[in-house]
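[job 4417] fold queue: 2 targets
>>> target A
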Amino acid sequence: MVEEADLKHWRDAGHVAKRTLDGIQDEITSGKHWNDVIDSAERFIRRHGGQAAFPVTISVNDMAAHYTTNTQLTPPEGMEGEMVFEKGDLVKLDVGVHIKGAIGDNAITIEVGNGGNHTEQIKAAREARDAAVEVMHPGTPLHKIGEAAEQVAKDAGFASISNLSGHELERWNLHAGLQIPSYACGADNPGYKGAVEAGGIYAIEPFNTTGSSGLVENVAPSSSSNILRVTGNVKIRKALSKGKLKPLGATMARYIEERYNTLPFAERWAYPLLEKPFPEEDEESLRKKWNQLVKKLTSIRFLETYAALRDADGGHVGQFEHTVYVTDGGPEVLTVH
């Protein structure tokens, strides 16, 4: 539960997160490379006094979530052509900001070129989020939030995605405590027991789809998102003393942990850290060392990687998201101006 004294950081983070969405969405235009928008958004966050709580992600059409570019600008598996926006693309822009570990997490969906091909789906995604936020009062059973979101999607003719959830937020912890259903999971679903608590902060982000199963699946390989995270379960000094890490590996692990704590980070943020100990190495050699380092740090469970997610049926996915602080009187949306 968040203390009243901490709320300023949470409100400021939410404010910067919302400003970033507003400031960047007009850059999503036909012919623009995904990476240019991601880079622009991350610079906007820093310029306005925040840090990225996770890499800015862009998910186009059937891609649902968790994709950010890497240093080599490799497209997601199965994608043909360049990572360039085309007229009619349905684009999810997901932005997280932290200020001293307090997080604002929000997302929008837009259609490139505003041609009106996805108007109903975008409207339904926004309204599902708002309906879910509306019932975020202390004591509301979690399944009621999913019910509210699914009803909107269903009425508009779309399926809710059932294997993606909203989540509780804590300082330095993006996915903490409770998971928040985005579909009518029923009162007895073991994954969504409990109720909304006063003083809690939650990311509310229902997804809808034109697909029929309402499911997303991982894009291969398991690191396809280009996003990693320090698990917080492994002590570097202990791994070093047990011979699980060599001194250089331990130094790199320390660099990473000091910079990102346990918040998700991008391969393209951390990869350049290798240039410090290896200033003379060429790109091929550095790449090899990076891959070996990640393999070692994931094998000892110091790091975990994430897969990008796409709709299992190839349907188009829509999403809107707010971060909400629950007061005794109801929800306070933090991702606002």
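>>> target B
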Amino acid sequence: MMQVPDWNDYQAFLAIARAGQLARAAAAMGVDATTMGRRLRRLETRIGATLFEHTREGQVLTEAGEAMLAEVEAMERAASRIAEHGGGGANGSLAGLLRVSLSEGFASWIVAPALHAFATAHPRLVIDLVASSGFLSPSKREADLAVTLSRPRAGPVIAGKLSDYALRLYASPEYLADHAPLRRAGDLARGHSLVGYVPDLLYAPELRYLAEIEPGLAATVRSSSINAQHRLIAAGAGIGVLPCFIGDADARLVPVLPERRITRSFWLVMHKDTHSLARVQAFKVWLNALVERERGRLLPA
């Protein structure tokens, strides 16, 4: 008689399928790669099928693995519904894990300062605020919700515009006093240090700002982190583009060529199969209300 695999083995399989690499999946689950590999081999032995092809790039699902993925994701959705409807506690509060993927700047300057209110209202929720260069994918079930810089073109997701936001050039008064006057965008290419992203580490084309200000401009002091760029600009390292909700909040900065304003958009993305979960809908409602309150910072007059 075939043994029923441990649920941990199914979770390991799911993590590898979504991450595409055993080591990355192990890191996401907080275990070592050896443990992850052992769980996978145990699952494959018990069901009598190979679930992944092992390639130089990582793990690729076999036909049996694709079929298994659909079944395990259905199990995961059922477990989520049980947790919400049967494990919410006597007061009906939400429970379980909520993982949200956000851009670093939006997470740090808009969401994180207000998140305590949502967390206090739902004390049984574990909230993962993933704020990094790049986004986790709701379509691959890496996150429950993601706020991205563009609308997904494909995948089993539901997406809608969350808000537009404005960006412009900033510098410190000390930097401007020590460098040639700026009367037009073309002056930026003459005797000025520009702060910006590392080109080959850009995770979204929407982050290419400088060429939109003036063709041919290139940063000479670069970072993959918008918060690091902000600190560089405030310290006098140069002139750079920042979201207005960052630049306007820092009294050490002043706008440069304020008429050269850039507009981008935030998109809220959720998986079709899980968007109706109570914890996902609760965060969506809270986030929309937060954005409405912060509209003046996102799109200043």
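[job 4417] complete. Note on B: DSSP finds twelve helices and eleven strands in the chain.
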